[in-house]
User: Which sequence fits this backbone?
């Protein structure tokens, strides 16, 4: 068997080797950005260096403190003798002790004036200082002046009518008097004729008697009517006089109204314009040209020589405040500024404060009571203006005396409130129990256990320091 030569294997196709792509060169003038890995590495190295530096500084501080004396680290204070000053912080609003409320004048004249509102013609600027009697506001006057002229003309006409009526009544009275005189004369004549009845016939005598009786009746009737008519005539004259007086009062009321339309300051002080609702439904201050209703409060004149702070204090804290206690007033508008003051008034009754839960039984606000009070500002300053918010530190007048230490020096021994301090003596800090009589926000009054002049520890040593004994 002859050997069969195998067929040669086909060669693999040759693959063309392409060159790897090369990043295009950056434009000239622009540096190449570092890679993300390099940036992360640099950040990690910086963090490690910072942590190492902090750890080194901390160890150095520990070494330094451990090698120094105990007295170099401690914050010390010296116990002093004096009065414990306690203060109570309250908030309020600046107001004036004396002021005058200025309202739109109410017209006292009859309704035929026909004015439901008044127009402001001139108004003193807010913040200006005025003297007593100065005109601070003026309302429209022309319509009232014209109305007064009309009413005065009516008064003159009424007075003329009264004079004419009096003259007419005098004529009537005289006519009626003459009628009564004539009737009386007729009666007297009839009496004379009746005396001749003896020489006359019986019929003629009877006629004379009837005539005399008739004349007497007529005269009596006229006298009675005269008395009644006298009353009627007097009443008619009085009625006309009342009409005249009514018109005179009409004029007088309008003249007084005319004076009210020029509002004058009753006291000297500063002008403060009040905000109110105008006809446009907006809440704003009054200005010239506005029409406002009579009786509306649109201005106050405040006496800035005496300013007070209207505040309120909790019913518990009020027990420590007395009239006349000193106070320090601060204005929120001027931080750092302080003014002297004193408690002027404390109300006798408390008012409800905002407290209580809406789900609790009873009326909300019925659990916490506040008592209104006034603090008089004794210092005078142009910056103290009405309606500014203020804070007041009231200093209690009852100031007990004794040994005073900073409040932070006290340490509590147990839950029952026993206290102690560390006294610095010969480089050591000795624990000493003390009895606290009273405390304020910053100081404590020591009753027993400490003397004035001794140094006490405030802070600075850990509790495990061996210097504590």
Assistant:
């Amino acid at each position: 068997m002859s050997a069969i030569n195998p067929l040669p294997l086909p060669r693999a196709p040759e693959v063309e080797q392409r060159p790897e792509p090369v990043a295009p060169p950056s434009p000239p003038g622009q540096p190449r950005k570092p890679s993300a890995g390099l940036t992360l590495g640099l950040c990690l190295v910086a963090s490690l260096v910072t942590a190492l530096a902090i750890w080194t500084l901390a160890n150095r501080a520990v070494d330094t403190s451990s090698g120094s004396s105990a007295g170099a680290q401690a914050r010390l204070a010296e116990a002093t003798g004096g009065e414990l000053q306690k203060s109570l912080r309250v908030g309020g609003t600046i107001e004036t002790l004396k002021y005058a409320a200025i309202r739109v004048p109410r017209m006292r004249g009859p309704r035929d004036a026909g004015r439901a509102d008044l127009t402001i013609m001139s108004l003193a600027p807010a913040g200006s200082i005025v003297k007593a009697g100065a005109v601070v506001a003026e309302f429209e006057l022309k319509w009232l002046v014209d109305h007064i002229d009309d009413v005065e003309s009516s008064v003159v006409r009424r007075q003329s009518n009264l004079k004419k009526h009096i003259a007419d009544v005098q004529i009537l009275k005289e006519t009626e008097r003459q009628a009564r005189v004539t009737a009386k004369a007729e009666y007297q004549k009839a009496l004379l004729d009746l005396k001749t009845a003896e020489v006359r016939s019986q019929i003629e005598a009877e006629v004379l008697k009837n005539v005399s009786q008739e004349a007497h009746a007529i005269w009596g009737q006229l006298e009675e009517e005269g008395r009644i008519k006298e009353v009627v005539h007097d009443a008619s004259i009085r009625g006309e006089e009342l009409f005249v007086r009514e018109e005179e009062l009409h004029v007088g009321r309008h003249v007084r109204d005319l004076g009210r339309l020029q509002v004058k300051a009753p006291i000297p002080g500063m002008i403060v314009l009040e905000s109110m609702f105008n006809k446009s439904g907006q809440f704003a201050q009054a200005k010239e040209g506005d029409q406002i209703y009579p009786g509306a409060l649109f201005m106050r004149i405040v006496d800035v020589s005496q300013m007070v702070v209207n505040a309120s204090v909790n019913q518990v804290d009020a027990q420590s405040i007395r009239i006349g206690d000193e106070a320090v007033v601060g204005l929120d508008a001027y931080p750092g500024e302080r003014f002297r003051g004193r408690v002027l008034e404390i109300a006798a009754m408390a008012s409800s404060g905002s407290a209580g839960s809406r789900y609790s039984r009873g009326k909300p606000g019925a659990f916490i009571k506040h008592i209104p009070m006034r603090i008089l500002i004794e210092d005078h300053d142009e910056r103290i203006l009405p309606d500014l918010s203020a804070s007041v530190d009231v200093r209690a007048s009852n100031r007990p005396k004794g040994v005073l230490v900073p409040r932070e020096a006290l340490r509590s021994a147990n839950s029952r409130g026993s206290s102690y301090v560390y006294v610095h003596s010969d480089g050591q800090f000795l624990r000493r129990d003390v009895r606290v009589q009273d405390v304020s926000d910053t100081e404590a009054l020591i009753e027993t256990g400490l003397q004035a002049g001794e140094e006490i520890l405030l802070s600075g040593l850990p509790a495990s320091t061996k210097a504590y004994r």
Observations:
- Residues 202-260 form the longest helix (59 residues).
- The two ends are 119 Å apart (CA to CA).
- DSSP finds four helices and 25 strands in the chain.
